[in-house]
Amino acid sequence: MSRDEQSNSRERQKNSREDQEFNDSGGLKLKQIVFIGRTFEEYMKMFNLTVEDLTGKSILDCPGGACSFSSQARKLGANPVAVDMAYKYEIEELEVKGFQDIEHTMKQMEPVQGIYVWDQFGSIQGLKEERTRAITDCVADMRMFPDRYVASVLPDLPFADEQFDLTLSAHFLFTYADRLDVDFHLATVMELLRVSKREVRIFPTVDLSGERYKHMDELKLILEERGCTVSEEPTSYEFQRNAHTMLQIVKHN
User: Fold this and answer.
1) What single DSSP character describes residue 44?
2) 3-state helix, strand, coil in the chain (%, to 5)
3) Is it the case that residue 173 has pLDDT exceeding 90?
4) What is the pLDDT of residue 124?
5) DSSP codes of every residue in 92-120
6) How far apart are the first and last CA of the chain?
7) What's the Cα-to-Cα distance from 158 to each of 152, 191, 198, 200, rounded to whole Å?
């Protein structure tokens, strides 16, 4: 799911999935979901990944949204699973909603193009094409491997301890630090670590304003005290300005 592209629309933020996850005890409605995703190539840059990192590995994408990472990683010999609260809906519903969201998001971005770095996409049209490619690949993969797209709401995941070699989490933690408190962040990171054999990577390390997560040092200290190696690693990906660093957490059992 693409979230930084809605960062300057307050109304869109109020209707974001994260707001609904924590404020709507009556259940999430499809109209409250923004179902947009990033491409496999974006993931490779965001998380400093190589093909060798993927081949033969079990990988969790959480939250997966409408991203094409799973579909392409599967073709390279990985065993990916995507988890997202949106997957409770039928694929056909998500497909329609996703294309609607792409159109709406592109219109929202037109007056605020200056706050983004366009080296990757060139223009809003280029961004639209990439977002369209992402959801097209994602939906096709969902139809072929429906059991690999699991509906769940963080911070709880329906997976066994150390089920995955690697867990990736994009544009959720830290991004919405203004509405997801530090306890939620810690609980979610610990849950991601629980289901991971060795490593969790989180991108980016800044919030929607481009500021480094204010509790980052506190979080890193807690993780280090629990035996993890934690580092903030520069990446070659930047679309939201200042969002070009990932948090890499390595477990030492």
Assistant:
1) H
2) 45, 15, 40
3) yes
4) 96
5) HHHHHHHHHHHHHHHHHHGGGGGGB--TT
6) 32
7) 7, 10, 18, 17
User: What type of residue sits at position 6?
Assistant: Q
Query: Which whole-number Å values give the CA distances from 49 to 53, 71, 95, 193, 204, in the listed order?
Result: 6, 16, 28, 19, 15
Bridge partners (DSSP) of residue 196 are 164
pTM value is: 0.89
What sign results for the dihedral spanned by CA atoms 70, 136, 142, 203? positive
Give 79-135 pLDDT, tens digit per residue: 999 999 999 999 999 999 999 999 999 999 999 898 899 999 999 999 999 999 999
- CA separation, residue 96 to residues 165, 192, 239 (Å): 33, 30, 25
Cis previous bond, 146, omega within 30: no
Cβ neighbours of residue 196 closer than 8 Å, sequence gap 6 or more = 60, 162, 163, 164, 165, 166, 167, 251
Q: Of 31-35, 140-144, 191-195, which gets the smallest average pLDDT?
A: 31-35
Separation between Cα atoms, residue 217 and residue 205, nearest integer Å? 11
**Would you tell me how many other CB atoms lie within 10 Å of the CB of residue 73?**
25
Across the strands, what pairs with 234?
245
Give residue 22's pLDDT band: very low, low, confident or very high (50, 70, 90).
Answer: very low
CA distance 37 to 148: 17
245 band by pLDDT with thresholds 50, 70 and 90:
very high
- Report d(CA 79, CA 94) in Å as an integer: 23
